[in-house]
Amino acid sequence: MKPSPNVRHGDRVPRSFFSRDTLEVARSLLGKRLICVQDNGTRTGGRILEAEAYVGTIDLGCHARSGKTQRNGSMWGPPGHAYVYFTYGMHWMLNFVTEAEGRPAAVLIRSIQPEEGERVIRRRRKDRPRREWTNGPAKICRALGIGKAFDGIDLCSADSRLFVEFAADISAHAVQTGPRVGLFTVPEPWKSIPWRFHIKPEDLP
DNA sequence: AGCACGATTAACT
DNA sequence: GTTAATCGTGCTC
């Protein structure tokens, strides 16, 4: 997204950011700062390094492929809300709902660079090496304390406990793309379509 | 009611 | 590189 000249670092990303094309949202989330604030005020987060687009009922890699269910209902809701789901019997995953209300699409957050609440994150990640704190979608949810309670919450309300902030823009040529991860039984072309966007930590300005 | 599987992770060899 | 862990979800019977 081309940032408007009057957007300052630290401003929260508005709903109009999420109501755009899902690929565009995924690409422009890179470098922005994800923040989670718990009820007790504990604050954790970091810069987004990796994200994947999941687009509607036609995309056979997207949970929306089999229609609206209790689990994936958030994807049909308004943009700028969280879609948080449970998988593999033990893991939570964080997505941001995109496009217009009624059009199921979302961006999966796969990796962030920890920048806030690092002591809390280290404890939640059981003193593992720093590079393993948030380099996976379920690791992010574990590290930031995101679970079922966050499904459906509004990222754009003034008092939200989960939101995204503008940060220094990354250069366009730092963005890399590739197939989405973990879609083992998904048919082509959806299995290989390059809807994963990522940057190296060293390319963060 | 039963069952196969998953937008993964961690702990193995 | 390989595989067990672990259970809600959605589909079939």
Characterization of the model:
By secondary structure, this protein is of the alpha+beta class. The chain has helices at residues 15-18, 22-29, 118-124, 137-144, and strands at residues 33-37, 43-55, 82-87, 91-97, 105-116, 162-165, 176-178, 196-198. Helices cover 13% and strands 26% of the residues. Strand 3 and strand 4 (91-97) form a beta hairpin. It is built from 4 helices and 8 strands, in the order H-H-E-E-E-E-E-H-H-E-E-E. Strands 1, 2, 3, 4, 5, 6, 7 and 8 form an 8-stranded antiparallel sheet that branches. It is globular. The protein binds a DNA duplex (13 and 13 nucleotides) through strand 3, strand 4 and helix 4.
Distance between the termini: 16 Å
**What's the helix count?**
4
Radius of gyration (Å)? 16 Å
Helix content: 10-25%
Number of beta-strand segments? 8
Class derived from helix and strand content: alpha+beta
Q: What's the shape? A: globular
Order of helices and strands: HHEEEEEHHEEE
Q: What's the overall average pLDDT, rounded? A: 95
Strand residue percentage:
25-35%
Poorly predicted runs are none
Largest sheet: number of strands, sense, barrel closure = 8 strands, antiparallel
